[in-house]
């Protein structure tokens, strides 16, 4: 494979991944608590394995390497719902929920109570308090949540929501639409407050992402055409070098 073909192929792979990430942003423009994602590239140097016409070692070939998807941490717009179990966070913190794979983090505060009276996500993951699982409530005793995260009913306190923050939230990795995981150990978020009866919407800027989607699609088509031309040229060169 010639260098030009390799460059075009590498660029095409990067554009495909960028297209996937941008399309995911567009698809989640209405997902509560969703944080827009972006693809990060780094340089990959492909070592030279031969010598040029002057007999010198070939220089490494610089190629784009679509290495990492990072998360935009800007808060999305907060929309009032009037539902006391809908919670938004005023600050940079995250809710903590328990899944089969362990603790996960989210800004999606669209919570409900399950058949056991536990506060859970819409997918059934229990919301965690500072001391672990929150105590279940009586079905006939409505839950209320204060700005300090204290969860209770008229009869008793069920616990206090655990809110955490990260030094590098851009490195949180998505798990589905609204859950996140982290290799970094979270710290308690002592300054963030809870807004009950409201929900944080997606921070995706729809018009911007749609424009990027169009730009990436056009670039993909152009590079795809260049790649085909390069492959055709490589095939012609191979035929030209076939001995009679």
Description of the molecule:
With 244 residues, the protein is of the alpha+beta class. It folds into 2 domains: 99 residues, no CATH class; 123 residues, no CATH class. The chain has 2 helices and 19 strands. It has a 4-stranded antiparallel β-sheet, with no helix packed on it. It has a 3-stranded antiparallel β-sheet with strand order 11-12-13, with no helix packed on it. Strands 1-2 form a two-stranded antiparallel sheet. Helix 1 runs antiparallel to helix 2. It is elongated. The model has no long low-confidence stretch (mean pLDDT 85). This is Flagellar basal-body rod protein FlgF. Pfam families: Flg_bb_rod (PF00460), Flg_bbr_C (PF06429), LlgE_F_G_D1 (PF22692).
Features:
alpha+beta; three-stranded antiparallel β-sheet; 25% helix; 244 residues; single chain; Flg_bb/hook_C_dom; four-stranded antiparallel β-sheet
């Amino acid at each position: 494979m010639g260098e030009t073909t390799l460059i075009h192929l590498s660029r095409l792979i990067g554009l495909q991944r960028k297209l996937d990430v941008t399309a995911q942003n567009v698809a989640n423009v209405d997902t509560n608590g969703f944080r827009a994602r972006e693809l990060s590239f780094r340089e990959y140097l492909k070592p030279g394995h031969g010598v040029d016409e002057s007999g010198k070692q070939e220089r490494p070939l610089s190629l784009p390497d679509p290495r990492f998807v990072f998360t935009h941490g800007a808060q999305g717009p907060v929309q009032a719902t009037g539902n006391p179990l809908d919670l938004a966070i005023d600050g940079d913190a995250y809710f903590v929920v328990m899944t089969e794979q362990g603790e996960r983090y989210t800004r999606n505060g669209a919570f409900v109570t399950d058949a056991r009276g536990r506060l859970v996500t819409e997918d059934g993951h229990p919301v965690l308090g500072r001391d672990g699982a929150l105590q279940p409530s009586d079905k006939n005793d409505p839950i209320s949540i204060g700005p300090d995260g204290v969860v209770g009913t008229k009869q008793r306190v069920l616990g206090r929501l655990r809110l955490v923050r990260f030094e590098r939230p851009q490195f949180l990795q998505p798990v589905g639409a609204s859950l996140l995981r982290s290799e970094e150990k979270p710290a308690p978020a002592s300054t963030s407050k809870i807004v009950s009866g409201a929900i944080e919407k997606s921070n995706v800027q729809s018009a911007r992402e749609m424009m990027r989607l169009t730009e990436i699609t056009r670039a993909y088509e152009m590079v795809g055409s260049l790649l085909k031309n390069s492959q055709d040229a490589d095939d012609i060169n191979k035929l030209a070098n076939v001995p009679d």
